[in-house]
Amino acid sequence: MTEQNLETVILAAGLGTRMKSDTIKILHRAAGRPIIDHVLDLAGSLSSRKPIVVVGHQRDAVMANCGERARYVVQDRQLGTGHAVMQAGPALGEPIPDCSVLILSGDVPLTRRETLAKLIEEHRNNGNAGTLLSMVTDEPAMYGRIVRDESGELMRIVEAKDASPEELEIREVNGGIYVFEAPALFQFLSTLSTDNSQGEYYLTDVIAGLKNSGRKVGAVITNDPVETLGVNSRAELAMVESELVRRHVEALMREGVTFRNPSAVSVDTSVRIGADTIVGPFVTLEGSTTIGQHCIIEPGVHLKNVEVGDHVTIRTSTVAEDATIGDHASVGPFAHLRPGTVLGKSVKVGNFVETKKAKFGEGAKASHLSYIGDAEVGADANIGAGTITCNYDGVNKHKTTIGAGAFIGSDSQLVAPVTIGDGAYVGAGSTVTKDVPPDALALSRAPQKTIAGWASKRREEMKKDGK
Ligand code: UD1
Ligand code: MG
Fold first, then answer.
1. Phi, psi (5° rounding) for residue 68?
2. pTM, to two decimals
3. What is the residue with the minimal CA distance to atom 11 of ligand 1?
4. Per residue in 68-93, pLDDT tens?
5. Max alpha carbon distance in the chain (Å)?
6. How large is the C-alpha radius of gyration of the chain?
7. Ligand 2 center–CA 163 separation, angstroms
8. Which of 196, 212, 250, 304 is 20 to 30 A removed from 395 (C-alpha atoms)?
């Protein structure tokens, strides 16, 4: 269900002082994305109209983050939630159109889409002028309390700071999420006063206003406290992060991914993983990372914006960023694939190998202890242990090209720009400064000198000297 006649307003003007941060709280990241992005997704899943975001503190940063995904209204001074919603009026149009308005908080990202759909449905089915999401909890803390009469009818909301001791005992609290009929909402917003302990315009007072004027109001109750959890502190940010990751990992498991220790991984909600892939503990998967089917991701692997094919093994403690790994490749343990690395099908990059802007053709191998940067490696080339592409002359970066089927002996330095032709050999320990033609052997190490009996002679001399 996405609706035409549903407008969404997201309150996002408050700074969030309890975060003790230079950054407004809604731009702190959880599961890889700013908190408000999760709320924008939620709004987008329910209404086809762009949400109206009420901005105030750090509005430039908020608007830069949300970009074209939202419309904006400015609340210069934070005079309360009622005042914030009032600012959205002009964006809706004049006169206020006959539509429903869903009000969300930019710092409450865990509400389920189904819960909001139910909220809207009940609101419509009952012909309410206002419907809110409430929660029953043993820890009502600083939430507004839902006051009902003897027959259980919703009467009003009292903020914790304004509540009597008896009202503070109430266990049903206001989740801060509402649907209103737009004309009724704006009619009552204009009558709000600041006659309360905080001297603010309370959006919550609209409920009592509607009720007292004979309009229908109601509440949908959730028993899951995370649905109304707002991020006000770092501890709540961590709770939101772990809930988002938990939900995403559970969804991936339903799609056939094995997590050996689901509570000990960090997986952004943007990450996609194919069926029959096995993910070990302490794995971090970030950004636009996608992993194919039948892969093994061993413990401690960290991937950011990496595209992984099918049947790939990534071994322990490998780190990769902005890289592509082809089908049937094997990487690590302890490999470091830096941006611009593209590994073809069945490539092997082994332990303590670092790559950067390096393209490996199908079946190429660098199995141990190498640095391959600004390089193109042909299919089935074999790069021996300790090979280094010397790509940087102190000013510029230069390219190394290694042909298909070439064999680079261990401990070689390839001083770029340089080309090793197809099928050529570089002898172990060589420093290559000139291009090597196809099928040639290049050898640049000093010839070996062998002096027979030298060692025993030396030992005798040392004995003589009393050493
Ligand atoms: C509000 C409710 C309370 C409810 C709680 C749920 C009111 C008066 N109270 O309280 O009943 O239990 O949410 O979390 O509404 N904001 C603005 N401009 C303002 C004030 C707030 O944009 O002038 C934004 C904040 O940035 C935040 C949201 O509105 O995103 C909620 O404001 P907050 O101050 O957190 O309200 P609470 O005191 O938590
Ligand atoms: Mg709050």
1. -75, -5
2. 0.92
3. 144
4. 999 999 999 999 999 999 999 999 99
5. 115
6. 32
7. 17
8. 304
Kindly give the pairing relationship between strand 348-351 and strand 371-377: unpaired
CB 309 within 8 Å of CB 345: yes
- What is the C-alpha to C-alpha distance for residues 409 and 429, in angstroms, rounded to an integer? 7
Confidence grade of residue 233 (pLDDT, cut at 50, 70, 90): very high
DSSP-assigned beta bridge partners for residue 351: 368
Q: Mean per-residue pLDDT for 398-415?
A: 98
How many Å apart are CA 74 and CA 59, to the nearest integer?
A: 8
Q: Is the separation of the CB atoms in 440 and 425 below 8 Å? A: yes
Catalytic residue among 57, 294, 368, 398: 368
Confirm if 180 and 129 have CB atoms less than 8 A apart.
yes
Assigned token pair, 396: 């510029």
Shortest-distance atom of ligand 1 to CA 107: 30
Q: Is residue 368 among the annotated active site residues?
A: yes
Q: Tally Cβ neighbours within 10 Å of residue 333.
A: 16
Q: Is 19 in a helix, a strand, or coil?
A: helix
Residue type, position 417, single letter: P
215 with 131: CB under 8 angstroms? no
pLDDT class for 194, splitting at 50, 70, 90?
A: very high
What per-residue confidence (pLDDT) applies to 467?
Answer: 73
How much of the chain, in percent, has pLDDT values that exceed 70? 99
- Cα(226)–Cα(308) distance, rounded to whole angstroms? 33
Cβ neighbours of 260 (radius 10 Å): 14
